[in-house]
Amino acid sequence: MASSTNLISKGLCFHCGNPGHSIANCPSLLRGEGQSNAGLEALQRFVSHRKELRKKNGGKREKVNLKGPLFHLTKLKYWMKQNQNSEQGESKVYDPLVLAKQSDECNFVNHAYREFFSHVMNFVEKEFAARMIQESLEDGASTKDIANQFSPKPFRRKRLPQTHNKVFDETDQIDKTFHYNYSWQLALNKAVKDGIPANFSNKPAIRVYAYDKLFPRVRYLHHLVMDRNEISDNIRKKLLLPEPYNVESGQVRVCAIGDGPGYDHIALGIVSSFLYQSQCPKSLKNHLLKPKMIVTQAFDLFDKDWSPIMSSLNQSYRVALSKATMRDEDHEYNNLLVQNPTLNHCDIRLSLDNAKNKHLNDALPNMDIISFQYILHENSRTLLPNYEKQSHAMPYEKDYQNIDFIRGAMFDILQRARVGAFILCTDSNNFVWPILKKTATVFGWNFVGDFEKEESIALGPKSFVILERVKKRAEEDE
């Protein structure tokens, strides 16, 4: 007799006892035949199993979860397995999203990668919150303050008693609990509005900031790379498993500018992990297949302030990935995906030839992916020429031909990055995109942004531009 667990997973019919259909669609029932002994046993096992569940839950009914946390990923593996053997019997590696374009029956691919993303990030968020709370306690914060800081935003205290109308600065003697929620948040909003860099030197505040932004910032970049457009498809090709595997082809070098916490490293690591998981590596004949190694060099204006946050987040990511994939922390799989990102100083308002951007200038020629998440707009006062004239009116896409080139390090990056490199940009609005696109076109970059796409990316960034360099200069084709 099959166990109750096997019964539920197989879905035996309660009339005939065969799998693959329910009693409502049972062929023998439609033919007017009576209930078989196998069907009666299946029904009795099901009823017994439900009674056991009620006893465990104090008499309460519980909905049986048939899918599990990675149901769609498991389904995707079976589907991918059917496509991994060519006519010659050789193992092949495919991008599941590209294959899904060719079939109307593969909508579960979207569910699979989003399901895997949420599964991993739930572990990362919990581990990171625990580390931030521990560090806050070591700095002397009270448990009441920590409970307010790391609770969901809707439940946090919103106002300061009697002084909530006052705008505080760094010199005010106030409770650090409120410093992020009130004065520091106002300072961040003002920096974005004025197009100037924000100040991230407040250590207690950036812990809460890093925790708040962790899930959305990682999700924005992850969903952008997993989007179905030509450039995102090419980025995933870069992240697909190499055939055959070797050290050089097994690395993807990432330059994350303005990514002090290390969000971009995690986002691309989850993409690489998903592409590896979807291939059913055990069923492939090439046993050298491994996940792509994400080697990230991050650059930030406040690198010294973000360094301890990045270290804590990367440790949380290592522990979370081992739990999510049920592997040891020192497993080769985790060691490939959880490389320790480096963090150096840079100032994108300055040229790459400036001494402050030496590390960025040295790293740029070898980079495969360059990311800018929520950094260009807050530096737009310096990056955009004639900023004062443009700040009162949003430049629309059709008018960008009349705008001068972008300035600072962004101009040098567009000019000096190697052919085949990608740039991923997300931001709070599209104020910088027109001039960025114009400059990129001159230097041989193709681009896709939210303006070019007919549909938005569900739960992805609302304002974005992704670029791929296809040639050195646009004039080369003339």
Structural account:
Residues 1-9, 159-179, 283-287 and 389-402 have low confidence and may be disordered. The protein has helices spanning 4-10, 27-30, 37-56, 71-81, 96-101, 108-138, 143-149, 176-194, 203-225, 230-239, 263-277, 303-325, 332-337, 358-363, 380-383, 387-390, 409-416, 433-442, and strands spanning 251-257, 293-300, 342-345, 369-373, 422-427, 445-449, 463-469. With 478 residues, the chain is an alpha/beta fold. The chain has two domains: 4-56, no CATH class; 118-477, Rossmann fold. The chain is built from 18 helices and seven strands. Helix 4 (71-81) packs across helix 6. The chain has a seven-stranded mixed beta sheet, with helices on both faces. The longest helix has 31 residues, at 108-138.
